[in-house]
Amino acid sequence: MSDSQTTRPSHVLEDPSAKAVAQVYATAFLNAAGQDKQAELLEEFTSFHDDVLQANPDFERLLTTEATGPEQKRGVIERTVKPYASEKFTNFLLTLAKHDRLELLPLILSEAWQSHEEQQGQVRVKLRSAVELTSDQLERIKQRLHDALSFEPILIPSLDQELLGGLVIQVGDTVYDGSLRTRLRDLRQRLRERYLNEIQSGRDRFSSPEGN
Q1: 167-171 and 174-177 as β-strands: parallel, antiparallel, unpaired?
Q2: Phi then psi for 37, rounded to 5 degrees?
């Protein structure tokens, strides 16, 4: 493949301005869907991203590369997507192609889901544990979070064997660390501080006139 056929640099998706643009398109996407059809259209969007783009890298490159012009991209969508997609989703893709923003599809999808979940009173909660959590454990955690934080948590569990044991819960930018690794670290720190305090107290006693 020639250099002219490469996709835009991946850092485009990490650009804060790209995220801001993605938020605008995500809001427009949800508004076009309407409150009662948001979940359905989001599922269609997710399926297109996961089952079409991710499963067919060459097709994804065709839609996101700068070497393919906006009108060419619109033509591809008309021929390959329109016959199988809903009218609203097709029009959404055509609009992105017109403004040459198809490379933002992953960001737009993420922002759209997050906005939809917030509208439903839901919040994504990341769970990291040393061992895989059972369905009963996840349900208990979900209920406790719901009772404590007054929202419907969407749990996203993952394994982290470095934790040794326990659980790390992240809600937005806030991290609740109950892992064994952290408890051991805190214990070592407290023991170290107590040890240093005892040494300093001993030095103070020996250096004072009363200690002689």
Answers
A1: antiparallel
A2: -115, 5
If you compute the radius of gyration of the chain from its CA atoms, what whole number of angstroms results?
26
Q: How far is CA 76 from CA 60, 64, 82, 83, 174, in A?
A: 11, 12, 9, 11, 43
The CA dihedral of 164, 166, 170, 174, to the nearest 10 degrees, is: -100
- Give the CA-trace dihedral at 187, 192, 194, 198, to 10 degrees: 160
Burial zone of 2 (CB within 10 Å; 0-12 exposed, 13-18 middle, 19+ buried): exposed
C-beta of residue 109 within 8 angstroms of C-beta of residue 46: yes
pLDDT tens-digit readout, 54-86: 999 999 999 999 999 999 999 999 999 999 999
pLDDT tens digits, residue range 98-110? Answer: 999 999 999 999 9
Which residues pair with residue 175 across a beta bridge? 170
What predicted TM-score, i.e. pTM, was given to this entire model?
0.65
**What six digits make up the tokens of 62?**
């065709």
- Per-residue confidence at 160, pLDDT binned at 50, 70, 90? confident
Backbone phi, then psi, for 152, in 5-degree steps? -90, 105
